[in-house]
Amino acid sequence: MVEERRPQGDASRDHHPHRAGELVLRLAGPDGSPLAEREVEVAQTRHAFGFGSTGFELIPHANGEEDAAALAEDWLGVFDTATLPFYRGDFEPRRGEPRTERIRTAARWFADRGVRLKGHPLVWHTVKAPWMDAMPLDAAWEETLHRIRREVGDFRGLIGSWDVVNEAVIMPVFENEPDGVPNAISRVARAKGRIPLIREAFAAARETDPGATLLLNDFDLSSAYECLIEGLLENGVRIDALGLQTHMHQGYWGEEAMLAMVDRFARYGLPLHLTENTLLSGELMPADIVDLNDYQPESWPSTPEGEARQADELERHYRSLWAHPAVQSITYWGITDAGAWLGAPGGFLRADGSRKPAHDALRSLVRGEWWLSPTRMRTDAEGVIRVSGTLGDYRVVAGGRAAEFAIERPGTDAALAPLTLR
């Protein structure tokens, strides 16, 4: 095999062999004959690692309610995994009238563009459905289980991953209700206990879509979350991945603190998803704020100094997590400052849609350094090529014919993989 150009995306340059692999392919035409001594082009189409962001901002565009083509281009230029909203108070503000079709239209829009999807969340005590609050506990829980089965079933085949229970550590004691009415989910959690609630919620989701990836997700990364995980595992509850939220409105934690936290949760042997990440490009939230929701300045602009800091911290954050073998996914919590959570300048795009340095910094990693750009190769006399790159999905093209393949395992897979181009 002769390479005419060095591949641009080579994870081995980062010295993280768990992120890279090599596949030996034998290419053949539709009639089965080898494509000998032929020039072909190989390109990566998606990472195995999940580089994600919220897809909330593109729901109106996907539904034809507005034209956000520029935003869509910037989003798709970096991310391959989208989180879609299933907050019950917004998704089903009136009982029996879920906004299924609007979210399903958005899900199809993303899926048609090769984007993986996650639903967030199925069970949470916040952004509640007020009509549930007056229900007896048994009725409220049956309604919740019905909701889990309905959403997972309605989106089976589109959404492959779910935050099943969100923020369970604080769930039984959550009392910060704006209307003063205790929410039904917290009351159920107090009555049932966290472990039975989570066990039953996961069971309902699992029986509805056995192939889905089911997450437990939390912002409380203290020993309380560890104790809850240990209790669930000891009671035989199957968790597919652990969700770890890191909204860093008060400043970047730094590589040492971040990786120490990741190590604590990696010891359970479960894949880790960094589900909600935020780094600011403006003034940081004061360190004495305990609940991030309590900080509500009149104005919170992005600044040139803050944008330079954000780009630097973002690259360090992603590089450190990419290096950790337990981490399978990083989801950034919003690409744009327009409508951002808490009004914070945490996006990669300014409110006017222009790009911050952070956008280009992440793109240079995800679609540059860690990516196999279109690369010309030449097969040998038996139609064989060797393709090296980050784990993920690929496409090979020769003379108008093409085929898809994947590099799924680290290291070299020396067994010849036959591949027919059609």
Automatic annotation (TrEMBL):
It comes from the Bacteria. Residues 65-365 form the GH10 domain. The keyword Protein transport does not apply. Its EC number is 3.2.1.8. Pfam families: Glyco_hydro_10. Keywords: Carbohydrate metabolism, Glycosidase, Hydrolase, Polysaccharide degradation, Signal, Xylan degradation. It catalyses: Endohydrolysis of (1->4)-beta-D-xylosidic linkages in xylans. Coiled coil: none annotated. The keyword Hydrolase applies. Belongs to the glycosyl hydrolase 10 (cellulase F) family. PANTHER family: BETA-XYLANASE (PTHR31490:SF88), GLYCOSYL HYDROLASE (PTHR31490). This is Beta-xylanase. It comes from Protaetiibacter mangrovi.
